[in-house]
Amino acid sequence: MSTANSPAVAGKVLRSVELEEAGRPSREEAERAVRTLLRWAGDDPSRDGLLDTPARVVRAYEEFFKGYDEDPIEILQRTFEETEGYDEMVILRGIRFESFCEHHVAPIIGRAWVAYVPSGRVVGISKLARVVDAYAKRLQIQEKMTSQIANTINDVLRPQGVAVVLKATHHCMTTRGVHKPDTDMVTSRMLGCFRDNPMSRQEFLTMVD
Ligand SMILES: [Zn+2]
What we know:
five-stranded mixed sheet; 9 helices; 7 strands; 22% strand; binds zinc ion
């Protein structure tokens, strides 16, 4: 996880203790922290079944949070201009994502609908899915993730408009806290023609339902 993407570092002056913490800890330190949490849960990290757990959890973290090592702007850099003047909506529907809430480190499992109306150039559709993943694989809140995806596509592709809808289940409220399973949260961000033109917005929302 690069410090440049660390929310703890962005936009504030760090005290020396925080500076120390901002550096990436070693794998051993991370595994030790997992052992502490296992003990906190009430178990014995030295029993057989838990011996390799700290190493496994740390490897899982590498996968869960690999988005910090990805640059969404770079993902969208390669575009195609031979589109024969295609200027209608491009929409990628129901992109499954897995993220973690930044308040409880509990899973956020959901789907994303991402649309844009190109102006001159298009991007490979798999790149839209990769941008969703690059932001999902971080500690997140759904509102911020929705904005980040839409803003990045808008900034890099400079299209006529961008629309993003996320629908997700938050395990911090389904499996703990208020315990409300079967609830999902829907967030959206509309830019350009999707914000200004009710017809474009409606066309997109019809595709989402
Ligand atoms: Zn939470």
